[in-house]
Write a structure and sequence with these properties.
Strand content: 25-35%
Largest sheet: 3 strands, antiparallel
Shape: elongated
Helix content: 10-25%
Number of helices: 4
Oligomer: single chain
Number of strands: 7
Number of domains: 1
C-alpha cells in the first residue's frame, strides 16, 4: 500500500520558455535551476513531491542519494524542513489538519509551516 501512496502524491513542474526570453542566469540560479535549462527557447520539466506536513512542493533531484523524509504517521513524504522538525519531536499535524483548525476560527497560525505555532484565537 505504501508504495502506491508514495507515488500518488507526486506532482509535475512544466516551465515553457519557447515563446519567452527565459530566465536571466542570476534569477535561474537563485531559484535553484540550471540556467541552461530555463533560457530562451527551452522547456524544463521535472517531477515534484508534495510535503504532507507543510504543503510545499519540492523538485525531485534525480542525482540525490540520501533518503527522503518520510512520516510513518501519515505514510507520506515530507520536506527536509519538516523532517528536521519531526526528528526534533514536533507535534504531528498534516497541512490539512492545520488548515481545518485555522478555518474553524478558533486557532491562529504563526511561525514557519515546518514548525507551525497554533494559538487559540482571542487568547
Amino acid at each position: 500500500m505504501a508504495g502506491n501512496l508514495k507515488r500518488s502524491h507526486d506532482g509535475y513542474l512544466f516551465v515553457d520558455h519557447r515563446a519567452s526570453p527565459g530566465l536571466p542566469a542570476d534569477m535561474a540560479i537563485a531559484a535553484g535551476y540550471d540556467p541552461d535549462q530555463v533560457r530562451e527557447g527551452k522547456v524544463y520539466e521535472a517531477p515534484t513531491l508534495g510535503c504532507a506536513h507543510c504543503g510545499t512542493h519540492v523538485i525531485i533531484n534525480p542525482w540525490r542519494t540520501r533518503e527522503r523524509g518520510w512520516c510513518a504517521k501519515c505514510d507520506r513524504y515530507i520536506c527536509e524542513g519538516c523532517e528536521a522538525a519531526r526528528k526534533a519531536g514536533a507535534v504531528h499535524r498534516t497541512i490539512e489538519e492545520i488548515s481545518d483548525m485555522v478555518n474553524t476560527g478558533r486557532w491562529t497560525l504563526a511561525g514557519h509551516m515546518s514548525t507551525p505555532i497554533l494559538n487559540r484565537a482571542g487568547g
